[in-house]
Amino acid sequence: MTAHALLGASGAHKWLHCTPSARLEETMPDSTSTYAEEGSLAHEIGELKLRKHFIEPMGARSFNSKLKKLQEKPLYQDEMLKHTDTYLNYISGVVHGYAAPPYIAIEKKLDYSAYAPEGFGTGDCIIIGGNVMYVIDFKYGKGVPVFADNNPQMMLYAIGAILEYSILYSIEQVVMVIVQPRLDSISEFTMSADDLHYWATNTVMGAAEMAWKGLGEFVPGDHCRFCRAKSLCRARAEFNLSLEDFKQTKPPLISNEEVGEILQRAQDLAKWAKALEEYALSECLRGGEVPGWKAVEGRGSRQYANQDEAFKALIAGGIEEAVLYVRNPLTVPALEKVLGKKQYTELLFDAGHVKTEPGKPTLALASDKREPIKPLNPEDVFKNESGGIENE
């Protein structure tokens, strides 16, 4: 079973902003998900490929045998091979970019307890050559894009790696990288070792000490998304319920500033309500009581007991086989998945058979990485159909 630090790097975005959340989460049951288990399996495949190429040269038979065992796991998907190849290819490019063979570590435990009590995490790949170190993280998820820019998880990994290797290497620059292949995203962010030490000393140490002691104010925000206490946290509840404060607004029309604030609160309100619903359902299913609510059986669905046998019976009864099937063309993304990137590019994209339509205008937070759309005539923007708000 993998050990988890109270002030782990993966949760830094929570305990750096909301210091008492670390101890509060300790009181909540831990859980996993299919997505997390799927990501762990993809990590295992990626680790196997990296070890074969850079750490533990092994013959094809040995590699294929180990890979086959991973492919036999229930959550395995063929696309994991493609996405872990993207991860491997990026690292190969970094390695070959050094004048001399660099040092490489895979799945390295990194200790940054000098700045956060008992703080540690696991770096997926560390590469050091000359005075430049790469700290690379492989993320298999596709629900939420993650970027390296000022990412506290990556910065803590970097600090741990500097502490680990500074005796052997004169590290001056650290390149932090997040490879998220299912979103076609490779994000890089560079900081000097001195700036990382300054950040760890002036930002991490104080917050980590308070988080370790369970002190400080609860601060609701986007970092609540992955907090185990997100459903029942009183500070989050009070923040979301404070939307009622806007009814005290005096002018008949609210201002753009108020629109922006209400939208930000409403986004978290929707996520909070969903988390509450999931919690209440689990409570009812285990026999607990949530006044005013109960768990009931949802609408059922009809399925074939045995599709092949059912269709045989229909055909034997005089039904034409053509009636039983619908023929639909694959979408462009689905066809790319079937053909693979190379064939898709050669046969379709480069040949001009695919066109890319711009997405509909949509509202996003100011922190979003995309460039804002230049001002348009609202009548043109919403002539046919309106845009929406991106929640993730």
Mean pLDDT: 86
As residue ranges, the low-confidence spans are: none
Main sheet makeup:
5 strands, mixed
* Global Rg: 26 Å
With strands numbered from the N-terminus, the spatial order across the biggest sheet is: 1-2-3-4-5
CATH topology of the domain at 9-213: Lambda Exonuclease, Chain A
Which bin fits the share of residues in helices?
40-55%
Total strand count, please?
A: 5
- Globally, the shape reads globular
Beta-strand portion reads 5-15%
Task: Specify the CATH architecture of the domain at 9-213.
Answer: Alpha-Beta Complex
The structural class is alpha+beta
End-to-end Cα distance, whole Å, is 31 Å
Number of continuous helical runs: 13
> What is the H-and-E element order?
HHHHHEEEHEEHHHHHHH
**Which CATH class of the domain at 9-213?**
Alpha Beta
Could you please describe the fold and organization of this structure?
The protein has 392 residues and is an alpha+beta fold. Among the domains are: 9-213, Alpha-Beta Complex (Lambda Exonuclease, Chain A), CATH 3.90.320; 230-285. 42% of the residues lie in helices and 11% in strands. The chain is built from 13 helices and five strands. It is globular and about 80 Å long. It starts with 11 loop residues before the first helix and ends in an 11-residue tail after the last helix.
